[in-house]
Write a structure and sequence with these properties.
- The chain is of the alpha/beta class.
- The chain has a domain of about 180 residues: 3-Layer(aba) Sandwich (Rossmann fold).
- Helix content is about 40%, strand content about 25%.
- It contains 9 helices and 15 strands.
- A hairpin with a 4-residue loop joins strand 10 and strand 11.
- The longest helix is centred in the middle third of the chain and has 33 residues.
């Protein structure tokens, strides 16, 4: 299994990091420091090495240091199997985020083909209790890591659906225009559904290969009304039949945007939403590790971002998490408020301490706790 990792990371005017440059050797990275000292900001910077809005879902204009008003930049050297790559992503004030790979302009979707980045953050702790949108996003990030074309299909589907919804709200009767948009939705939506289904199969299979005793989840995709038809032709026909219903609702009621992800703790037969807080966290960790394992089986290990994950696990599960990460050979960035949370890692990791000085993060490399 190839083990790509961030070799150097340079931040400029990114949230609390005025300027920082860090070097890594591929081992897991543990960061500790008080709340508000910039640990999560560093993980967020790494998350911008993947497509989208990062682990906080922040817009490009939100992450720059406002006092300077000069924009922000994240640059990384990636040590990849058989090659090294230089990645830069930045945004100037009032402009969209741009990406360069090896000095050449690239799209955000090109990042998905270069290196997968997975994350687990405290905001995801209520994943099984809140709305379906967060669970779809969780599933789609897993699908994107395994199927880089998932991002293109998602963009195509969303664009066609927005246009169809506009026609519905305007009360348009233009059958030709509806037909063209519904054909695009059916093509992209069928691809999304295939990728999602294959992702669930891969995640559940990968759970069985765990080195440690994290719980397995039985996963399924459900819909509030009609499921997606099994072919593009049937999907397009379903959209056509539903035009009057959709016009009354003012939106499209059939498609992958209506999907929800359900999980059941396999050994107990208990739905994730009914599990305890600790059990829900353990299931999330299990799925993130399964996603990483599935990628490793394909030949490319991801980078993991685990924000404050240790604080919500008992000592046994915390040690199991570290053993699993090390067994997978991953570069994982993990945060905590004090070094004792990482004792079980020992010399298997690199360590950095964060401190805050007048709104600016100070980073110091440390030895193992």
């Amino acid at each position: 299994m190839s083990r790509p990792h961030v070799q150097t990371l340079a931040l400029s005017q990114f949230r609390s990091h005025a300027r920082a440059r860090l070097a890594f050797d591929g081992r897991p990275v543990a960061l500790w420091g008080p709340n508000g000292s910039g640990k999560t900001n560093l993980l967020e910077a790494v998350s911008f090495l993947s497509p989208g809005r990062g682990l906080r879902r922040a817009g490009a204009e939100e992450v720059g240091r406002r006092a300077e008003g000069v924009g922000w930049k994240v640059a990384a050297s990636l040590d990849m199997p058989g090659a090294a790559h230089e990645v830069e992503t930045q945004a100037l004030p009032g402009e969209a985020r741009t990406v360069r790979i090896d000095g050449k302009a690239a799209s955000q979707l090109d990042l998905a083909r270069l290196i997968p980045v997975l994350w687990l953050v405290p905001a995801m702790d209520r994943l099984w209790l809140e709305g379906a949108e967060g669970r779809r996003r969780f599933l789609d990030r897993a699908a994107l890591s395994l199927f880089p074309d998932h991002g293109e299909a998602s963009l195509a589907y969303e664009k066609a659906m927005r246009e169809r919804n506009r026609l519905l709200k305007d009360g348009s009767r233009d059958a030709h225009w509806y037909g063209a948009l519904e054909s695009q939705m059916a093509q992209a939506g069928t691809q999304l559904a295939r990728n999602r289904s294959a992702t669930l199969d891969r995640l559940m299979a990968a759970q069985g290969q765990a080195e440690t005793a994290f719980p397995a989840a039985t996963l399924s995709i459900v819909y509030p009304e009609d499921p997606i038809p099994p072919s593009e032709e049937l999907f397009a026909a379903g959209l056509e039949r539903g035009r009057w219903r959709d016009m009354a609702a003012g939106r499209s009621l059939l498609g992958p945007h209506r999907a929800d992800l359900e999980a059941v703790w396999t050994a107990k037969g208990v739905a994730a939403r009914d599990c305890s807080t600790g059990e829900q966290k353990a299931l999330l960790v299990s799925l993130i590790l399964a996603n990483a394992r599935a990628l490793g089986e394909e030949g490319t290990a991801p980078i993991l971002l685990l924000d404050e994950v240790a604080a919500h696990l008992d000592p046994g599960r915390r040690a199991a998490l570290y053993d699993e990460v090390c067994a997978l050979g991953l570069q994982a960035f993990m945060t905590g408020t004090e070094p004792g949370l990482f004792t079980e890692l020992g010399e298997r990791a690199q360590y950095w301490e964060t401190a805050e000085d007048g709104g600016t993060t100070i980073l110091s490399e440390r030895s193992a706790p």
